[in-house]
Design a protein that fits this description.
Biased composition (Low complexity): 139-148
Family: Belongs to the shikimate dehydrogenase family.
Pathway: Metabolic intermediate biosynthesis; chorismate biosynthesis; chorismate from D-erythrose 4-phosphate and phosphoenolpyruvate: step 4/7
Order of helices and strands: EHEHEEHEEHEEEHEHHEHEHEHEHH
EC number: 1.1.1.25
CATH architecture of the largest domain: 3-Layer(aba) Sandwich
Catalytic activity: shikimate + NADP(+) = 3-dehydroshikimate + NADPH + H(+)
Strand order of the largest sheet: 2-1-3-5-6-4
Shape: globular
Helix content: 25-40%
Distance between the termini: 40 Å
CATH class of the largest domain: Alpha Beta
Strand content: 15-25%
Number of helices: 12
CATH superfamily of the largest domain: NAD(P)-binding Rossmann-like Domain
Amino acid sequence: MAERRLFVLIGHPVRHSVSPVMHTAAFRALHLPHIYSAFDVPTEDDLRQIVDEVRSGVIAGANVTVPHKQRVLSMVDAVDESAASIGAANVLVRTPDRRVIAYNTDALALQDELDDLLKDTSPPSVRGKAGAPPAPVRSSPGQASGQASSFQPAAALGVIREPHLQALPCPRGRAVIIGAGGAGLAAIMACKRLGFHLISVTTRSWASSAEMLDSPSAERARALGALTAPWPVRSTPILSKASQMLKLNWSETAATADLILQATSAGMLGGPPGEDVTGIVPWDMLAPHARAYDVIYNPPVTPFLRMSGLRGLKARDGLGMVVGQAARSFTLWTGMEAPVELMRSAAEESLEKATSVR
């Protein structure tokens, strides 16, 4: 029998996460005695201590979530190209010679999700009649890498599918991304690989053009090929002309976007409220073919997804991404193929139970 090992999720907050139930289900299915726990790690010192424990072997491996995906890179012994190319990591692997290597499995998982969403021309959600399903619906159209948690947020709003309508094809022209943390950087890479011609990013911490230009995350986003813009809501009474123009440019780009991607923790259980994020999106101006994606999966209906449903857009939450990255993490740690369907089922069951008691 294999030696029991401890794997962990490290971040702040972590109580929303389905990672423990996914990995526990996978370990049991493959008769592995391992344990997976979520550790709330609020400070940089706490993070460094956990990395040291991975290096010593007390912890066999770790997933990294907000807010540590970028800062952890300076604490490891080596950075795999998957993480170096993006500037963020979500997986730590311990080698036999006691080295800690950082990887990124977020970008490929998100790429699979977005590719499926963009190709999906099944009937869209539309505002409609009474009798619609009372809760969001997820389905699993295809799997190998954990793609497609196909979620129609409009179902939770009294919105139904019209079977005679088809979603318009979605071109891969313009993508706008809200957020420039680890998930936002992974989103830039995913959109770039999917062939989007223009990728524009904004985040709340970029209140002005000066703050944006001084920001390491903005520098990283531009290095990945994205355009950056200050947060498009006036936060100070006086803004420079450059800031005003850049904010206007982002708003114009968002209005003509083919993909709107929410990559912050806004709206997450235990995270900041999501209304500030929804407030910068010109919902009434979006084209009918536009797609919306929220990396948040708990709760299943965020303010961003609620607005997407009201607009009648094809939209998806982040469950498929979290399953996809988890499956790749599992393989990095164990060398075994992850039971993706089982991990997804465990995550969905956990979320359904949590939703029913809230």
